[in-house]
Amino acid sequence: MNRTKEAISDVFWQILEEKPYSKITVQNIVERCQVNRNTFYYHFKDIPDLAEYSIKAWTDQVIKNNCEFGSPINCLTPAVQELTKRKTAFIHIYRSSHREAFIRYLNEICSYIVQSYIDWATNKIALSPENKSTVIKVYKCIFVGIVLDWLDAGASYDLLGFCEKVCVSFAGSGKRALLGQEKAAFRGQELCLQ
């Protein structure tokens, strides 16, 4: 781990909490970090490179610290807490030219969380990879959509509370969908989800 690189990334997150992404300069970062411009450019080629690195490092950390199994909300809570902790920074990234990278890593986090939970929840059930993949993709898209809606709304509602309500509302539906797909496939029938 390179401490200077991490310090620059930490300062980037701090400044991103204070001002929009488009207003952040290398000068802002080096002054706050108390390093020279050459040090910045040794580690990053520009601000977009720093943003990409910072989002990826954040993603890796959330994934590493994530997934206390037992219920879907236990898996989602760490990611939601991290999003909420840096909500202003994420709003600034979401409303910036670097939105695509953020959405790509958000998809990565959500895929990991959902896949890990589905793998754990269905570990004693023989399921086809195709059916399992379908359910994982559906739930990943739901969570990504919730986060994007939250950001579109300016992070103005309780994301964790909303996710808890969604988890309660859909409790057991993923497993039922997986089992239903397997039963329908076994009987040679088409599954019609109602």
Describe the 3D structure.
Helix 1 crosses helix 6 (87-94) and helix 5 packs antiparallel against helix 9. It is built from ten helices and no strands. It has 194 residues and is mainly α. Helix content is 74%, strand content 0%. Residues 184-194 have low confidence and may be disordered. It has one domain (48-187). It starts with a helix and ends in a 7-residue tail after the last helix. The chain has helices at residues 3-18, 26-33, 37-43, 47-64, 72-85, 87-94, 99-121, 129-152, 159-169, 173-187. The longest helix is centred in the last third of the chain and has 24 residues, at 129-152. The relative contact order is 0.11.
Number of helices: 10
Helix content: over 70%
Number of domains: 1
In round numbers, the mean pLDDT is 82
Instruction: Report the end-to-end length measured between terminal Cα atoms.
Output: 50 Å
CA-based gyration radius: 20 Å
Query: How do the SSEs run, as a string of H and E?
Result: HHHHHHHHHH
Characterize the overall form.
elongated
Q: Main sheet?
A: none
Count of extended strands: 0
Low-confidence stretches: 184-194
Q: How much strand?
A: under 5%
